[in-house]
Specification:
Distance between the termini: 37 Å
CATH architecture of the largest domain: Orthogonal Bundle
Strand content: 5-15%
Oligomer: single chain
CATH superfamily of the largest domain: Transferase(Phosphotransferase) domain 1
Structural class: alpha+beta
Shape: globular
Order of helices and strands: EEEHEHEEHHEEEEHHHHHHH
C-alpha cells in the first residue's frame, strides 16, 4: 500500500506531511456524524484538463478531533481499527484507502472517489430493479463479503447506504464503504466453529435475528442483511417494517415476511428462492458468501445485465 500513515506542497507522497501538501480540497460530497467527505484534486494536475483531473481525483474524509475521538481515546483507537481493516482489504468491490494523514486538528483520509451515488438513492429513484441489475449488485457485494469472511472480517452493517458505485449509470461495480462496525475476529481468537461475536450492532431494518436474540454470531449476519437488500431491490420496499423498533425486532426474530403477489408476481422463482435462503432465521442454514456468488440465478442474470450494459455503451 506504500504511504498509508502520513505524518508548501510536497513533490512526492513520501514528503507530504498533511493532506493539503498533496490535494486541493474541493466541494463537499458527503457528511457523516463525525466527518465530512470532500473531493480532492492532486496539485500536480492543476495544469491538466478537467477530464484528467477528474480521473485522478480522490475522496477526502475529514474527521475533526472532537470530544470522544481525541488522540489516545477509545474512539480514536476504534477509528484506527476501522481504517486498519479497510486498508488491508484490497478487493475490487471494497472502497480503497490511499493515505491517512494524522494531523493535529483532524485526521484526513484519502480514498477511492465513488461519485456514482449509493444503492439507497438508486432504490428510491428506481423503486424496483430488474433482476439482472439486482443480481449484479448481489454478485459484487457477495464477492466482497467472501473476501472479507475468508480473512476473518465481519462487516456487521450491510445496508444500501454503505454500498456505493463509481458510475452513476452502471450497477455492476458496487463497493462497500464505512467499516466503522467491521470486526476482525482473528484479533480476538474468534476464528472457528460457532464461536464469534456477541456485541449487538447493525441498522434496525437489516439486523439479523441472532443479534437481536443476543446470541453469539458470526459472518452469517452479513448474508441476512444481503437478503434484506435483495428483497428491497426487487420490489421497492423492505421485507420487515414497523414504526416501533421493538415490534420490528419481534418481526425480524420470527422471520415474518411475505412475497406479495401484487409486487412479486413477475419476479422469478429462483430469485425468491435465494431470498428465502438468505432470510433463514437459522444462520447455519443460510448460504455462505461464496455459495451466493455461485448461485445459478446470480450468475445467469448478472451475465444478461453485463451484456445489456455493453450494448448500451456501444457507439
Amino acid at each position: 500500500m506504500g504511504h498509508l500513515w502520513a505524518t508548501q506542497r510536497a513533490k512526492s507522497p513520501e514528503e507530504a506531511k498533511c493532506v493539503d501538501d498533496m490535494y486541493r480540497l474541493m466541494e463537499e460530497i458527503g457528511r457523516g456524524s463525525i466527518s465530512v467527505v470532500r473531493k480532492g484534486l492532486p496539485w500536480e494536475n492543476d495544469s491538466n484538463s478537467e477530464g484528467e483531473q477528474s480521473s485522478k481525483a480522490v475522496a477526502v474524509r475529514v474527521i475533526k478531533r472532537i470530544k470522544g475521538i481525541e488522540r489516545g481515546s477509545k474512539g480514536h483507537e476504534a477509528l484506527f481499527e476501522e481504517l486498519r481493516i479497510q486498508a488491508l482489504l484490497r478487493h475490487q468491490n471494497i472502497c480503497r484507502i490511499f493515505e491517512v494523514f494524522n494531523e493535529p486538528e483532524a485526521m484526513n483520509i484519502t480514498m477511492e472517489l465513488l461519485d456514482g451515488g449509493d444503492l439507497h438513492t438508486r432504490i428510491i429513484v428506481r423503486e424496483r430493479f430488474e433482476e439482472g441489475e439486482a443480481a449484479s449488485v448481489v454478485y459484487g457485494v457477495a464477492s466482497a463479503l467472501q473476501f472479507m469472511h475468508e480473512r476473518g472480517v465481519v462487516f456487521r452493517d450491510l445496508k444500501p447506504e454503505n454500498i456505493r458505485f463509481p458510475d452513476p449509470f452502471d450497477s455492476s461495480q458496487p463497493k462497500l464503504v464505512n467499516f466503522s462496525l467491521a470486526r476482525d475476529m482473528r484479533r480476538s481468537g474468534d476464528t472457528k466453529g460457532p464461536v464469534g461475536i456477541l456485541t449487538p450492532c447493525g441498522s434496525p431494518g437489516y439486523v439479523a435475528p441472532e443479534i437481536l436474540h443476543q446470541k453469539i454470531y458470526n459472518e452469517a449476519v452479513d448474508l441476512w442483511s444481503l437478503g434484506v437488500i435483495l428483497y428491497t431491490m426487487l420490489c421497492g420496499y423492505p421485507p420487515f417494517y414497523h414504526e416501533k423498533h421493538a415490534t420490528l425486532f419481534e418481526i425480524i426474530k420470527a422471520g415474518d415476511y411475505e412475497f406479495h403477489e401484487s409486487h412479486w408476481g413477475s419476479v422469478s422463482d429462483p430469485a425468491k428462492h435465494l431470498i428465502s435462503r438468505l432470510l433463514c432465521v437459522d444462520p447455519g442454514r443460510r448460504p455462505s458468501a461464496s455459495q451466493t456468488v455461485r448461485t445459478t440465478w446470480v450468475y445467469l442474470k448478472r451475465f444478461q445485465y453485463k451484456q445489456h450494459v455493453e450494448e448500451m455503451l456501444k457507439p
